[in-house]
């Protein structure tokens, strides 16, 4: 429980003490949005790195050479933990907005930082509003802001399984003309969810796959791009699980 209390305390203190920074970022954005994008990214990356350090998480990052640094991309990943966002955001090379559930927009201060980072809030129960969110994500990607989405639609609570990938998520890459980066996360639930509410010192493996350009795919593969990317992530997941956590009890996966 010590790590949980330490992480929680840090997050609460950061959100409260960063209120002057939020005001400063708002002012900066009135004059230079590019500076605001980069400064907000740096501030939140610092906070997330502190969270990772306090939680005692070791990250093995693979395939970062596949991340374009001069253009926006659509990150697509499997989702098992709240820590997925923290662990992956510190690795993005350019401003990136995450697609989050609508309920997070109601969290004071946190939602302000999320909006500063171009995060979008998806109403999964309202098709019309959901489409507006996707259209906004397309517009952001066209304007150089990378987008990250977890197309399973929610955190998968069953280990070593994958929920269906919603095909609509991939319209962002198709309509914006940006590449898809498959993002495979292994063992993140072992940090927190597997022994809630305790946070445990664990190793998490994140691998970024080669960019997938929808325009270069055969017609049939374009129709089922979600299944294709899901297959890439599944193969990568089980390969890395076998390599880094071979038949190892959860309490020893650190």
Nutshell version of this structure?
The chain is an alpha/beta fold and 254 residues long. It contains nine helices and seven strands.
Protein model, in words:
With 254 residues, this protein is α/β, with parallel strands linked by helices. 44% of the residues lie in helices and 14% in strands. The chain has 9 helices and 7 strands. It has helices at 2-17, 19-31, 33-55, 83-89, 110-116, 127-142, 171-176, 219-223, 225-244, and strands at 58-62, 74-77, 96-101, 120-122, 146-149, 180-186, 203-208. Strands 1-7-6-2-5-3-4 form a 7-stranded mixed sheet, sandwiched between helices. Strand 3, helix 5 (110-116) and strand 4 form a beta-alpha-beta unit. Helix 1 (2-17) runs antiparallel to helix 3 (33-55). The protein is globular, with a radius of gyration of 18 Å. The protein starts with a helix and ends in a 10-residue tail after the last helix.
Q: What would the keywords be for this entry?
A:
single chain, 254 residues, seven-stranded mixed sheet, 9 helices, 7 strands
Radius of gyration from the alpha-carbon trace, in angstroms: 18 Å
Task: Report the sheet with the most strands, covering strand number, pairing sense and barrel closure.
Answer: 7 strands, mixed
Determine the strand fraction and express it as a percent band. Answer: 5-15%
User: Structural class of the helix and strand makeup?
Assistant: alpha/beta
Q: What is the overall silhouette?
A: globular
Query: Could you list the spans in which at least 5 consecutive residues all have pLDDT below 50?
Result: none
Annotation, overall tally of beta strands? 7
Helix content: 40-55%
- First-residue to last-residue Cα separation: 17 Å
Query: How confident is the prediction overall: mean pLDDT?
Result: 92
The number of helical runs is 9
Order of helices and strands: HHHEEHEHEHEHEEHH
Main β-sheet, spatial strand arrangement: 1-7-6-2-5-3-4
């Amino acid at each position: 429980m010590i790590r949980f209390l330490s992480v929680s305390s840090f997050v609460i203190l950061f959100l409260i003490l960063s209120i002057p920074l939020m005001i400063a970022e708002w002012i900066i954005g009135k004059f230079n949005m590019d500076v605001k994008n980069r400064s907000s990214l740096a501030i939140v990356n610092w906070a997330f790195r502190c969270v990772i350090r306090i939680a005692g998480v070791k990250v093995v990052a693979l395939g970062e050479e596949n991340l374009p640094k001069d253009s926006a991309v659509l990150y697509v990943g499997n989702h098992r933990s709240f820590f997925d966002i923290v662990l992956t955001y510190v690795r993005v090379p350019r401003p990136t907005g995450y697609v989050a559930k609508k309920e997070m927009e109601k969290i004071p201060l946190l939602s302000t930082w999320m909006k500063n980072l171009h995060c979008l809030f998806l109403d999964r129960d309202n098709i019309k509003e959901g489409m507006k969110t996707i259209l906004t994500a397309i517009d952001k990607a066209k304007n150089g802001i990378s987008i990250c989405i977890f197309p399973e639609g929610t955190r998968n609570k069953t280990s070593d399984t994958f929920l269906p990938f919603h095909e609509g998520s991939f319209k962002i890459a198709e309509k914006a003309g940006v590449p898809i980066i498959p993002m495979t996360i292994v063992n993140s639930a072992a940090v927190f969810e597997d022994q809630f509410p305790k946070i445990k010192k664990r190793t998490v493996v994140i691998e970024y796959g080669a960019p997938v350009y929808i325009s270069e795919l055969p017609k049939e593969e374009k129709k089922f791009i979600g299944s294709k990317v899901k297959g890439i992530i599944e193969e990568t997941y089980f390969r890395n699980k076998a390599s880094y956590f071979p038949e190892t009890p959860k309490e020893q996966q650190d």
